[in-house]
């Protein structure tokens, strides 16, 4: 470790993943099932995809994209959200707080740091951002991102490609209720992207390191070169996120 806050390998005490916080709270409030995989929300998801296996395949997802239109996908998503609930993370953080002041600090700190991480991970093309790869540091009221195995848009090359650059579900936007969590996230994200753009020269060593990592894992020299260009496009806003995603 270089310091208490910086190091290649570090054990973070008093921390939990977003998944574990949400899952533990969900289990306290639900008697219908003892596993998220058999919850009503999960069953609705598998029904929409078209497979009843706990782990739908890439073929299942491909067929679902072909079979459903956007309105159908949005409707299915809302059904799953309503079946699962929107406040498990909020209640979990309340249970971790010993005072009202800590509760307020934890709610805002988690959403603020998540917005900052989302901006940084979007620019760097960090993938695999599932709930198990976000640690909540209860002591410092912040979120820490872990596991950077997929960078510079490599998540879009998976058999089930990652098409959404960041996570922002009702579990997260409801953290600041009754305030507007989505608006707070948006403002923080915009400031983060502006700061990254203003200090883009400082990111050059990071870009070079990421390109070297990709070059060592893929056979084509074109892939890391294109990935580096896409990172610059994100950083400077040369093109829309949709166009960049198509290239990824």
From TrEMBL:
Q: Name one GO cellular component term.
A: nucleus
At the top level, the lineage of the source is Eukaryota
Q: Which GO terms describe its biological process?
A: double-strand break repair; telomere maintenance
Where is the PI3K/PI4K catalytic domain positioned along the sequence?
Answer: 1-248
Molecular function (Gene Ontology), one example: protein serine/threonine kinase activity
SUPFAM superfamilies to which the protein is assigned, alphabetical: Protein kinase-like (PK-like)
One Pfam family this chain carries?
Answer: PI3_PI4_kinase
Q: What is this protein called?
A: PI3K/PI4K catalytic domain-containing protein
Species this protein is from: Compsopogon caeruleus
């Amino acid at each position: 470790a270089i310091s208490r806050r910086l190091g290649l390998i570090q054990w973070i005490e008093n921390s939990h993943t977003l998944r574990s916080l949400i899952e533990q709270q969900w289990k306290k409030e639900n008697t219908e099932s003892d596993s998220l995989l058999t919850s009503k929300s999960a069953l609705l998801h598998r029904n929409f995809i078209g497979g009843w296996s706990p782990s739908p395949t890439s073929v299942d997802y491909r067929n679902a994209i072909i079979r459903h239109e956007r309105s159908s996908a949005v409707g299915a998503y809302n059904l799953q959200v309503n079946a699962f609930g929107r406040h498990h993370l909020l209640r979990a953080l309340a249970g971790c707080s010993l005072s009202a002041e800590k509760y307020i600090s934890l709610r805002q700190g988690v959403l603020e740091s998540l917005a900052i991480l989302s901006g940084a991970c979007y620019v760097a093309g960090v993938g695999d951002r599932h709930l198990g790869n976000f640690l909540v540091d209860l002591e410092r009221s912040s979120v820490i991102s872990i596991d950077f195995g997929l960078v510079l848009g490599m998540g879009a090359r998976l058999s089930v490609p990652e098409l959404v650059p960041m996570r922002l579900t009702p579990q997260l936007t409801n953290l600041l209720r009754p305030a507007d969590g989505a608006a707070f996230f948006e403002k923080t994200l915009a400031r983060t992207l502006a700061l990254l753009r203003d200090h883009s020269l400082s990111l050059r060593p990071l870009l070079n390191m990421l390109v070297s990592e990709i070059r060592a894992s893929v056979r084509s020299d074109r892939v890391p070169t294109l990935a580096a260009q896409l990172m610059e496009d994100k950083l400077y806003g040369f093109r829309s996120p949709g166009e960049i995603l198509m290239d990824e």
